[in-house]
Amino acid sequence: MARPGLLLLLLLALPQWTALLPWPDTAQGTMAGLILTALERATSFLEDRLPSINLDGVVGFQVLEVQLRGVQEKWVSNPLLRPLSLRTEQLTNTLSTLLQRSIFYLKQSDPKYLREFQPSIQPGFWKLPHAWMRTNASLVYPWLEPLDLFSEESSDTCLVQLLGTGTTSSHPCELSDFCRTLMTKTGCSGYSLSHQLLFFLWARMQGCTEGLFRQSQHYMSIFCSNMMDLNRRAEAIGYTYPTQDLFMENIMFCGLAGFSDFYKLHWLEAILSWQNPRAGCFGKPATKGELPEATAHQQHILRRVRRREKLFTDGCSCHNTATAVAALGGFLYILADHPHPGPDDGSAASSYQDTSMPDAQRMDRPITLLLRSWSQKSHAEEEAEEREQLQPIATWGVGLETEGTGLGRLGGGMG
């Protein structure tokens, strides 16, 4: 099988008449098959390592199962999509069985953590977006707080309180003054920021609508706009390890929150290229592609906040694999949700603008708009655009590690 990067580059050369082909023979169908192959490999990894997979890993696959069911609902009635639909159905059934079996092992490995966060792996908890929105660069913070103001323990406390699974609270949607302040604090980045979004995302899943939660959409718009900014910075430094995990977590969470501009074609290509071709997992790459050695302070943070990360000897990571499959499941879902975007469909466009870069250098068009534009441009125009996109982004010289964008897992629960 050809490498994902090669296949996606071939998609860029599709001629105009592909828009007239049945859906499975178009760019959408090709990408859907490519994503399904990656997800099938990742599910094989889950099956092979099931006794050792932690709860964070199971959560990612639980989200994927929901996404696959959403895709199946959109494909099942179309006879042209029967091959893809059957693959999706088979993968969904396999996942469902594995997820049920995983509970047995989680009860043995970390019963307290399972009790506190079990709602996140229960059927019906995760819900897919049915309306799409865009991030807004005007909401990006002009400054960032120090990373270690937001610990895993404090994040755990607030998420457990929200779920109503703690020893001192049994009612969902409860909110202490401490958690109200922590989860609305401005200037957070990295995993602190993604867990602020997760808090309001879980509030939506739980049906919390009173008090602060009346403003859930407001806060999610702020957080995802800043998470978009962090993802662009990760891209600017070449997705160096360990930024890949946070990069995929941001796509996972903001995609579930309904922000379609996180689903970019070149981001899909990057994620597919990170999969271990033998094990099917995602995790620590070979020696190249890592950030320079961290400072002692950064190393301390990494040890302190990743206490539940499961890293296998072959470099496979439970958390990386979980965020990867949920991000890829989101790409598949939006492809199914936007099979033929109309000429006036701007739902997937991003309002994010980087004024330091010319438009031709900004590879930020969401996947649905890219699919539409391919059928409207000549091959020469596509080649010219590709050459422009490959130019280095000189204006983004500031590295993630100097901006405090979170190289450690500063959050708790699923993060």
UniProtKB/TrEMBL annotation:
The keyword Cell cycle does not apply. One of its GO terms (molecular function) is protein homodimerization activity. Residues 1-20 form the signal peptide. InterPro entries: DUF4735. Keywords: Signal. Pfam families: DUF4735 (PF15882). GO terms for cellular component: cytosol; membrane. The keyword Signal applies. PANTHER family: UPF0764 PROTEIN C16ORF89. This is Expressed sequence AU021092. It comes from Nannospalax galili.
